[in-house]
Amino acid sequence: MNITPGTYTAKVKSYQIGLHEKTGTPIPKVQFEFADNVGETQTIVMHMYMTQQSNADITIKNLITLGLNGDVLDLCGGLQSGKHAALDTTKEVSIVIENENYDGKTTAKVKYINEVGDAGPGFGKVLDNVSCFNGISFKGDILRIKQELATGAVTTPQTQTKTNFDPNEKLDF
């Protein structure tokens, strides 16, 4: 895959969430589809991280930009299509792709996700709906960040809490 760095209009082609093999932290993974600068269809995958509160906030903002419906937990189980999926697969977004040098190799990487026209700045096993996050919810963070985006006011982050998770319990978001 040889993608020229730049800004492209893209849509979510697929998504899933897993846990980092070593740290056990959630990693949403999103595959974008877009036309490159010569009009050929390309795909690129972005791994998002939630290892620190600042990373979780950035990831949640990115997921909201991608049309997140509900909680990050709704990404469990993988792709559904359309506006009623966990991520809106019909929504166009702007992605900024840059080259990244790692371990002697240069690869293309999604650096930013923005609304179209906005100029702002190790993946483990795939989890199903039952095992996803072991009951950790980011709903409070999602609501806080949506409020920040709507009002421009910055609030204090909530910390994620692990609940006594019952895999048979229906979660109401």
Provide keyphrases for this structure.
single chain, 173 residues, alpha+beta, 2 helices, 6 strands, 15% helix, 33% strand, disordered C terminus
Q: Could you describe the 3D structure shown?
A:
The chain has 173 residues and is of the alpha+beta class. It has one domain (6-151). Helices cover 15% and strands 33% of the residues. The chain has two helices and six strands, in the order βββαβββα. Strands 1, 2, 3, 4, 5 and 6 form a six-stranded antiparallel sheet that branches. Helix 1 packs across helix 2. The longest helix has 13 residues, at 53-65. The protein is globular. The protein starts with 5 loop residues before the first strand and ends in a 22-residue tail after the last helix. The model is unreliable at 121-127 and 159-173 (pLDDT under 50).
